[in-house]
Specification:
The protein has about 450 residues and is of the alpha+beta class. The chain folds into four domains: about 10-115, Beta-Lactamase, CATH 3.30.450.20; about 155-250, PAS domain (Beta-Lactamase), CATH 3.30.450; about 255-375, Beta-Lactamase, CATH 3.30.450; about 380-460, Homeodomain-like (Arc Repressor Mutant, subunit A, Orthogonal Bundle), CATH 1.10.10. It has helices spanning about 10-20, 65-75, 115-155, 175-180, 195-215, 265-270, 290-295, 320-330, 380-395, 405-425, 430-435, 440-450, 455-460; strands at about 20-25, 30-35, 80-85, 95-100, 110-115, 155-160, 170, 215-220, 230-240, 240-250, 275-280, 285-290, 335-345, 350-360, 365-370. It has a five-stranded antiparallel beta sheet. The protein is elongated and about 115 Å long. The relative contact order is 0.05.
Amino acid sequence: MKLPDLDSASFAQLLSGVSDLTLVLDASGVIEDVSTGRDTLVTLGCQGWVGRRWIDTVTPESQIKVDDLLRESAEGQPPRWRHINHPATSGHDVPLQYIVLALGRSGKRIALARDLEGIAELQRRLVETQQSMERDYLRLRHIEGRYRVLFDTTSEALLLVDATSQRVLEANTSAQTLLRDNAKRLVGREVRDCFEADSQAEIQSLLRMALATGRIEMCSAHPVGSGNSWTVTATVFRQEGGPQFLLRLAARDSLAERPGAGPSAALSEAMERFPDGWLLTDTQGVVKSVNDEGMALLGLTASSQVVGHPLERWLLRGGVDWGVLGTNLRQQLPVRNFATEVRTLSGLTLPVEISAVSLNRPEPMYAFFLRDIERRHPGASPVTQSLAGTLSDIAQLVGRRPIKDIVGEAVDTIERMCIESALQLTHDNRASAAEMLGLSRQSLYVKLRRFGMIADSEAD
């Protein structure tokens, strides 16, 4: 390759374009000049290397590489790239890749360097990512081991079922014992084949309901080979392959097998199997007992998740709702169809109606019945019908009165109806009604007096 003669400025510009750091060395390896092509190399303090030996500017493990580069260039051997580290003021070594070229017969040499910091950073990230993946993999193996121990050692029969094909994916030891699967052929069979013919339709309905609602659903069924009725609980969850069911089979003792079976035992059995949620609390609202439907309504898998905890924890309005319920129950007044919302274990809100009574036992207790009103056919409530009629009357005023007066009258009407509904729900307990409406008691009394719902002397 024939190149034109280059002056020193052009040659320096050429070197800055092909290297990130350029060192001019004399015959003994002392640095005579330094040129940097990147600002990132300023942290090396390389401008202060002039007059120092090149070998003194590198880390100890790189000094032998510097000797090899100088010797090879003096002997006229073909140049090769070597990885050399320089200590930096930041505490981290700066990696550079050097090649040394001889400059004519003067004995001087030129060292060209490429910055490897970007590659080194990528290598560090790769190592950190690999270590993180190994830690995650180890943690997943530990979780899988704990899951396998719990799954196989629990006394409760468990089946893992694919939601699409409804075939059994896994069955623990208790399920294999219950279904007499000594040959372990349960995996791969359709889940309905695990139950008697008269229970297969119930199991199909259970799975459809659990998949549609996303909640814990329960039913009674007869497993194959078992003459007793068992409680089957279906929980749906999603994995990479799609939704799956976890079926739990719990034995249900019959009344005839219970000692002392009688009216009390029959009533207890009836409350356990009641189609609405049922909870028993003390006078402070701490839950003492709950039935299966109550657990399903709150999205629970075990009674220990609610027993011993205050009921107001599960009410969306918390202390406001409990204040209304507790006030009535302390006065021995039954609560009927109290509309509110509960918060399930997964954080979802569910509209319910609560009925409650106070029980006169040696220790006073409260019994609550929770009914999911979403399951009923929605109908127009009296408040909704009244509001619709009022808004229809207000609409007739369009064109007869200014819109400002119409809007003001509509706001007053709706505000009055909200106050009436709150007083009706709280049985005229104005303190609880004010808290439910988000008002102070003084503001509520002002509005009651403005709407003529109390006498001025009573408000004072």
